[in-house]
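Tutorial sheet, problem 5. The four components below are modelled jointly, 260 residues in total.
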Amino acid sequence: MAIARRSVKREAILALLRSVTCHPSAEWLHARLLTDFPDLSLGTVYRNLRQLAEEGLIVSVGVIGGQERFDGNTAPHGHFVCRRCGAVTDVPLKGGRSFHRDVERLTGGRVQDVETTAYGLCANCLDIRA
Amino acid sequence: MAIARRSVKREAILALLRSVTCHPSAEWLHARLLTDFPDLSLGTVYRNLRQLAEEGLIVSVGVIGGQERFDGNTAPHGHFVCRRCGAVTDVPLKGGRSFHRDVERLTGGRVQDVETTAYGLCANCLDIRA
DNA sequence: CCTCCTATCAAGAATGATTCCTATTAGAGG
DNA sequence: CCTCTAATAGGAATCATTCTTGATAGGAGG
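Model answer (structure tokens):
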């Protein structure tokens, strides 16, 4: 009655995601893992990312430039997404759970998690633009 | 040297988006507008949505269930997205611009807008699940 | 009125990320 | 060992979105 069997590749995906401060896409992870697992298929990466997200071990940052991006850091924090280069930066959150509570009170639903994201231009892209 | 010529169809897309409290996808808008504009093509809806978003007249709520969703209400407010049925609900935001300021201070970038979104199960889907 | 010039548009092809399908493999437990 | 089940690769299929092309239309200036 094993529900989720241990998988070397899934663990490698999770480890890589946790060891890195950027917020990779499935394709980035696949390319990166290909050196250790030459027969890793992109489909396997997608399937395991979805499963890891369902288990709450990773978090989706949302779709940026057509690609879904993931974060191995599940502690609550905000994100800053550059509209030009797609870079994602972690930003600490000060506020407590007030939005979480407001939403549940106002909608009668159950909130699983809250994502706070700022969109704009990162310092790098501001320089290039200037 | 006219930069953006007036377009009946773009105005209809904007008007529909503003008249409605849900957060439609391009396909939803297209289906809805087809009664008034039988020759409206889906590509036209996509092109005009992108243009309206660039002009800041509408806002993208992000990709939900594989489809980008839009909001005609550009006043700052949060969203609650049901992971099961994809419904999007507006939720007022209490906090000020503190996150906005934090991001700019910490990253040196320029923030264009901040999106606060809660994910979970709406009241309806909670009932069905029960 | 007539003529450019430019923006809009439709239609459908092209793109590209993600998911689905199928046969194969590997590991755990008996 | 055997069996049963989940994991996997590979590739086909799907599907939202974008791009390309050619046609259309509306305004400015003659």
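Marking note: The first strand of chain B starts at residue 59 and ends at 64. Full credit if you identified this.
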